[in-house]
Amino acid sequence: MRGPLSRLRGPRDNEVYVPHHGDPGFAVQHYDLDLTIVLVTNSLSGVATLSCHALEDLDDFTLDLYRLRVSKLKVDGAAPAKFTQRQHRLVVRPRRTIPAGTDFTVQISYHGSPQPMPGPDGEAGWEELADGLIVASQPHGAPSWYPCNDRPDDKATYAFGVTVPQGYTAVANGRAGQVRRRGSTVRYEYAESSPMASYLATVQVGRYVPLTGTAAGVDLTTWCPPSRRSEVGKAFADQPAMIEAFSRLFGPYPFDTYAAVVTDDELEIPLEAHSLSIFGSNLADREWSAQRLIAHELAHQWFGNSVTLRHWRDIWLHEGFACYAEWLWSEESGGLTADAQAQEHHARLADQRQDLVLADPGPDDMFDDRVYKRGALTLHALRLRLGDEPFFDLLRAWSERHRHGSVTTDDFVDLVVELTELDGAEFFGAWLDETALPALT
């Protein structure tokens, strides 16, 4: 729709939320990451091969890489005229201008001791565990472990080869391939064939064993320490039912596989990656406080990982939808109805500060709990206005039409206006663009 709700945005809008990340002059179509990890010294050496496409004439281009040193770089198989590293920016000047519309390849050899990357909302990315490591990059941590064009709208396919010490398992996005043991190391291969945003790429390393299953035609693997096999099996036993329910409500699960990694360490929060989620051992529990988060991270596979925001200001399209999925799972599993959850959280929000604009909360508040709850309440208010059948038809159309794509809030508003008789300006203006909390009905 075009009118008072239309938000004009350009490629630089992400600079406000995650400053100095990404280069809009080119897109990466595929990443091939060949990594060797030495846990005892927290060292990483890698060769990243990026298949790219120039969106404009490129006299130079920039990649993101934090605290890791580049030892060799080639553009289309030849050394560039120059490359420089400053802070987390790797600036490459090829020997000749790369014309717009041209495909080109960048190969980067790099090494170092990865560290979490600081940002406006704290540190993200590579993180050492007591015995292993995790990567949780949302929203700015991807450059902590590989060179990338770190924009959420630049989605690419990936291949991973990860070499770790014997006795450890490496888990990455996508479908597992060959496992090759050689001396004191083992190499794990994974391939993600659906387009993925850079911050959703991940690698997890630990002493893990797999718990496997299927649901709705999806291969499921839950990785956990051997000593926690029983408690994790019980805590995550409802994942197949969650996938079945969400596939019915939201449309088919969007990827080939789904994995959950449960670390031996306790983690402050869980986090989703593309076709994979990460949990601490403190969430290996049957209580609702844990089950709602297991459902939340799974729902992100539809809303956040397949259908991905184009601009960080639209984070409610991820977190509001996943929070509402918690309430739907509560209803599906015999707990409080979604309406009861909505009424309870609406009352709580009404007692909090009324200074947040959902469609543009600002970098300081992009992960504020009010974004999650007000986003979910927006969806419930929409459900009450439309009725169940049109509402869930809308959610399925949203996930199908934008499968593996990049979206904005305007895209969602446009779809609602297209498929229903709702006055989008009246309804969404109150929920998305005003600070005062509207009534649910």
From TrEMBL:
Top enzyme category: hydrolase
CDD domains: M1_APN_like
Keywords: Hydrolase, Metal-binding, Metalloprotease, Protease, Zinc
Stretches assigned to coiled coil: none
InterPro entries: Aminopeptidase_N-like_N, Aminopeptidase_N-like_N_sf, Peptidase_M1, Peptidase_M1_aminopeptidases, Peptidase_M1_dom, Peptidase_M4/M1_CTD_sf
EC numbers: 3.4.11.2
Domain Peptidase M1 membrane alanine aminopeptidase: 242-431
Catalytic activity: Release of an N-terminal amino acid, Xaa-|-Yaa- from a peptide, amide or arylamide. Xaa is preferably Ala, but may be most amino acids including Pro (slow action). When a terminal hydrophobic residue is followed by a prolyl residue, the two may be released as an intact Xaa-Pro dipeptide
Lineage: superkingdom: Bacteria
Cofactor: Zn(2+)
Every Aminopeptidase N-like N-terminal domain range: 29-200
Protein family membership: Belongs to the peptidase M1 family.
Protein name: Aminopeptidase N
Organism encoding this protein: Aeromicrobium alkaliterrae
Lineage per the UniProt record: Bacteria, Bacillati, Actinomycetota, Actinomycetes, Propionibacteriales
